[in-house]
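Name: SEFIR domain-containing protein
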Amino acid sequence: MERYLSEKEYLIIIIISPKYYETVTASPVGLENDERTFNTVYIHKQLQNEFIQNGSKNFRFIPILFPGAKKCHVPNWLQNTNVYGWPRDRDDILRRLMRVEKYNPPPIGELPTIVSIPI
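Structure predicted for SEFIR domain-containing protein:
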């Protein structure tokens, strides 16, 4: 797990659900003391730190709202990034994972000829 977090070429899917939001925003006193909770909070903090170190620019996180989750369940630091909905945005998610653009720009044509006429 540490390797995938530290190697920047990997894209990371963040599944957003009410339970995830509750886990990562709860005070440490109110958290369950199980391994899943500790791992979830640890990974969340690592991802948040990377986001902040990148100047609040999202280069590799793919937040996905699962059914039952709403935009308010997205952690604050991911609110201004593209959040996908599952299964509605399935094709866009796959394009993002495969690093394929949705729209391809047209080829660049010839440069226009500029004619200067003295006045």
